[in-house]
Specification:
Layout lengths: L4 H48 L10 E7 L9 H15 L4 E10 L2 E11 L14 E13 L2 E9 L1 H7 L6
Length: 172
């Protein structure tokens, strides 16, 4: 069987295409990882935007039903309902709550957000601290775990001492 020029060209281009595919495959994976990181970061930003509107009931599109709050207080109920209850207490104490996302860092299925939080203490805080009508500001860092396009877990650190001093719960 004699090979024609067309057969040789087809085999050449098929080999070239296969080589390019293999050479570029890692970049496709990197591109996919970057796209997923951007999607996860956007999800977290939308979560905070919704919270800034005081709409804790509208968090379902962002937070999974089996959500786990790893730094929850012992008396906070588990799951999404407990998390919403906690957030509602904060929004009630600070009706003008504003959470500014200063930095976002993504790695695999985790998103880290550095925050600047401000609000006027015009509601009862933690069920105990009566309103002072003081405008307060504190910082925080959240680490979110994202799975299936929803937030499934959160680790949170806040400078609560600063906030408590500002509302007069602790002496300076």
């Amino acid at each position: 069987m004699t090979k024609t020029g067309t057969d040789v060209k087809i085999k050449y281009f098929a080999g070239l295409a296969a080589g390019l595919f293999l050479a570029l495959a890692p970049y496709s994976s990197i591109h996919s990882t970057i796209m997923q990181s951007n999607t996860n970061a956007d999800l977290v930003k939308k979560f905070y935007a919704t919270l800034n509107q005081g709409k804790t009931s509208d968090l379902d599109p962002f937070v999974a039903a089996d959500f786990r709050d790893y730094n929850a207080s012992p008396d906070q109920p588990k799951g999404l309902a407990g998390f919403k209850s906690f957030l509602q207490n904060i929004v009630t104490a600070y009706p003008d709550l504003s959470i500014e996302v200063l930095d976002v860092i993504t790695e695999n299925n985790k998103v880290v957000a550095r925050l600047q939080i401000t609000g006027t203490h015009s509601g009862v805080l933690m069920g105990k601290i009566q309103p002072t009508n003081k405008r307060v500001q504190w910082t925080g860092i959240d680490i979110f775990e994202i799975n299936g396009g929803k937030i499934t877990g959160r680790w949170s650190e806040r400078n609560l001492l600063s906030m408590m001093i500002q509302v007069g719960a602790f002496p300076k």
